């Protein structure tokens, strides 16, 4: 395949990288005065990267001698990633202006672009080296974003914790990659699968050890139990737009990468990695639900909610079928809208002086003070709990159905039973808003953009979302089948 064809397949990442580099120079010369302009141009760059997915970038196949895979599965994940990144950029300027009293620094959208470029490489990786380079580009940008508010102690602490624990996880992942390479003699996914299929004796044992370490490193990136410890502290300490970004785009990238590694590189060892995935799924569901019950900070609660939801998505991966992978994609599509909508509501939680208020108790009586905002948050909470007829129910149904079809009935049954635990803390928030005595009122919000995004997210996860099932189901299944 000629070089031009290869470049056409990586066009989204080229757009993001060149856009980020140009905007980095503009930021260096323009300073804070160009922050809003850089933010909107960054959104345009993300839209351009999305448009670039049309054509070879979504159906071109293998590029650069097996390093990169431009298929429909990667394109599906990239659409979700670009959307989440764009939302996290547009909501940031107003947050920083009101919280720190100064305009957003233009480095923020540039870092998001570079992180997104890394995520694009992750979901299209067809080689362990591409996997690692993309993951590290995403992670290094994320460490800086977590500590973006330099004068805020919590933000600095979040960035430091994320960096230290993330470096440890990267070391674990790299060790697993070295084992897989050492015992298979290759880094290309297809050849690794061949090695797993024919492995015997000590070679098989070595490859299994490599499998364990690779999945451990990936579990950290998606914050699945038992590698979830960084999530609550980082989500609480990071600026809220950054937390919204962490809870959406990197989750999609990490899960998509894990699915690709599991199916394409380690498909012959399904019986081995399935045990790891089932444990991580059930542990994430239970711990995410139980640990969230006594949380007093809304961002920490949503952190445990994200852990809980990763567990449900992993049930689809455990199925190991095209229907299971389609369930994962469907779940993540609905999940990022519910999560972004929830964090948009958190952005509205400010006192009369405009400073953030993050306690759950401050939501008391919100239905009487801000009825529309309370209704939107209630919709997001009911949907995250998977209560019909909201669209979040369909997300859980898709992964449970795939598990049952794969003869994992016990896993589906335990997942359904454990989901009732999570319903408790979601309903607790609704009860606080509608039945508790009113707390001091929040300051008035005059952001039509945030209000419009909240309304759009609420409509998407409402029963109207079921109208999208034929399109979403067909697209996710077609994307999943490209891996098999």
TrEMBL record:
Q: What is its main location?
A: membrane
Reaction(s) this enzyme catalyzes, per UniProt: a quinone + NADH + 5 H(+)(in) = a quinol + NAD(+) + 4 H(+)(out)
Q: Which residues form the NADH:quinone oxidoreductase/Mrp antiporter transmembrane domain?
A: 125-421
Cellular component (GO) terms are: endomembrane system; plasma membrane
Q: Name one GO biological process term.
A: ATP synthesis coupled electron transport
| Enzyme class (EC, first level) | translocase
Subunit notes for this chain?
NDH-1 is composed of 14 different subunits. Subunits NuoA, H, J, K, L, M, N constitute the membrane sector of the complex.
Protein name (record): NADH-quinone oxidoreductase subunit N
Source organism per entry reads Sphingomonas turrisvirgatae
What lineage, starting at the top, does this entry show?
A: Bacteria, Pseudomonadati, Pseudomonadota, Alphaproteobacteria, Sphingomonadales
């Amino acid at each position: 395949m000629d070089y031009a064809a290869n470049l056409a397949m990586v066009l989204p990442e080229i757009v993001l990288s060149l856009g980020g580099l140009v905007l980095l120079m503009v930021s260096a010369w323009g300073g804070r005065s160009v922050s809003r302009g850089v933010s909107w141009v960054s959104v345009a760059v993300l839209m351009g990267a999305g448009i670039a997915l049309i054509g070879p970038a979504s159906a071109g196949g293998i590029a650069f001698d097996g390093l990169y895979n431009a298929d429909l599965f990667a394109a599906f994940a990239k659409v979700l990633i670009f959307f989440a990144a764009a939302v996290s950029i547009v909501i940031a300027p107003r947050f920083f202006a009101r919280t720190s009293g100064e305009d957003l620094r233009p480095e923020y959208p540039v870092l998001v672009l570079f992180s997104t470029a890394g995520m694009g490489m992750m979901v299209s990786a067809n080689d362990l080296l591409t996997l690692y380079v993309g993951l590290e580009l995403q992670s290094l940008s994320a460490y800086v974003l977590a500590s973006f508010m330099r004068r805020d102690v919590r933000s600095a602490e979040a960035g430091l914790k994320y960096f230290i624990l993330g470096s440890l996880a990267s070391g674990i992942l790299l060790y697993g990659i070295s084992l897989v390479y050492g015992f298979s003699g290759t880094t290309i996914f297809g050849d690794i699968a061949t090695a797993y299929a024919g492995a015997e004796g000590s070679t098989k044992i070595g490859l299994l050890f490599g499998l364990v370490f690779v999945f451990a490193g990936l579990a950290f990136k998606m914050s699945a139990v038992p590698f979830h410890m960084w999530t609550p502290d980082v989500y609480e300490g990071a600026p809220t737009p950054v937390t919204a970004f962490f809870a959406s785009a990197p989750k999609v990238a990490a899960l998509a990468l894990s699915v690709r590694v599991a199916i394409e590189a380690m498909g012959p060892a399904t019986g081995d990695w399935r045990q790891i995935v089932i444990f991580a799924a059930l542990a994430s569901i239970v711990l995410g639900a139980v640990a969230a019950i006594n949380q007093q900070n809304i961002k920490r609660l949503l952190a445990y909610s994200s852990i809980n939801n990763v567990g449900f998505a992993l049930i689809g991966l455990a199925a190991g079928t095209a229907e299971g992978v389609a369930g994962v994609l469907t779940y993540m599509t609905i999940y990022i809208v519910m999560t972004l909508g929830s964090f948009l509501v958190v952005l509205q939680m400010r006192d009369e002086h405009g400073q953030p208020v993050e306690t759950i108790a401050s939501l008391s009586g919100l239905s009487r003070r801000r009825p529309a905002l309370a209704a939107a948050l209630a919709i997001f909470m009911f949907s995250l709990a998977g209560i019909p007829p909201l669209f979040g129910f369909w997300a859980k149904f898709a992964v449970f159905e795939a598990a049952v079809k794969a003869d994992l009935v016990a896993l589906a049954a335990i997942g359904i039973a454990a989901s009732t635990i999570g319903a408790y803390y979601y309903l607790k928030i609704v009860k606080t808003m509608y039945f508790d005595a009113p707390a001091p009122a929040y300051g008035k919000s005059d952001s039509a953009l945030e209000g419009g995004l909240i309304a759009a997210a609420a409509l998407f996860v409402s029963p109207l979302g079921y109208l999208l099932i034929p399109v979403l189901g067909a697209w996710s299944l077609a994307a999943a089948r490209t891996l098999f």
